[in-house]
Specification:
Family: Belongs to the PPR family. P subfamily.
Protein name: Pentatricopeptide repeat-containing protein
InterPro entries: PPR_rpt, TPR-like_helical_dom_sf
Pfam family, one: PPR_2
Helix content: over 70%
Structural class: mainly alpha
Largest sheet: none
Radius of gyration: 13 Å
Distance between the termini: 40 Å
Shape: globular
Number of domains: 1
Keywords: Repeat
Order of helices and strands: HHHHH
Number of helices: 5
Strand content: under 5%
Length: about 90
């Protein structure tokens, strides 16, 4: 069973309320999904956080800012920074 499968299953359980999830749990999952699949997978976790009402914290944005920077998406860095300040 691959890491991506485990991460996907864990996210589904978090969505279903099987596991109580806070920002720290989502951040760990986001970091793991980013290493496994990249920026899109990490952004999927951010979107799910927002759907369930879990507020992203500084660590959440740090993970995403680093991913954007590593992938050369500097315009997205600015947009995410502005979202973070809001």
């Amino acid at each position: 069973m691959g890491l991506h499968y485990i991460n996907t299953e864990l996210l589904a359980e978090m969505e279903a309320g099987v596991h109580l999830a806070d920002a720290a749990a989502y951040n760990k999952l986001m970091d793991a999904r980013a290493r496994d699949g990249g920026l899109k997978e990490a952004m999927d976790v951010l979107l799910q956080m927002k759907v369930v009402g879990c507020t992203p914290n500084a660590a959440t944005y740090t993970i995403l800012l680093n991913l954007y920077g590593q992938s050369g998406q500097y315009e997205n860095v600015r947009e995410l920074f502005l979202e973070m300040k809001a």
